[in-house]
Request: fold
Amino acid sequence: MNFIIRWIVTAISVAAAVWLVPGIEILSNSASWVGIVFFALILSLINMSIKPILQILSLPVTVLTLGIFYLVVNTLLLYIAAWLANGLFGAGFYIASFGSAFVASIVISLVSALVNGLIGNDA
Reply:
């Protein structure tokens, strides 16, 4: 049940990023929410599996930059999720530039924290 809640929260966050950040788009032929749902699934799975490993590996740089490098790790995970979602599902998730991905990772993090706080989920 916790994974489903995390998936829904991630889908809401990705939808907010697609809506707010220029350069982040869903280019699917079907409804755009289907692409967002599949992309959120991939991003949730990556956040549960690869993200802890990358956080440990990048810990020295993250400490030196006072936590700013953590946003770069989130941006890298966003790129990996877009690559997998486009390859596996043909979701059509388009990232125009690193700057767009960086701002989108900030928006996704903030909206996820807000929605998790509203629903009382500690994920």
Notes: The first helix runs from residue 2 to 20.
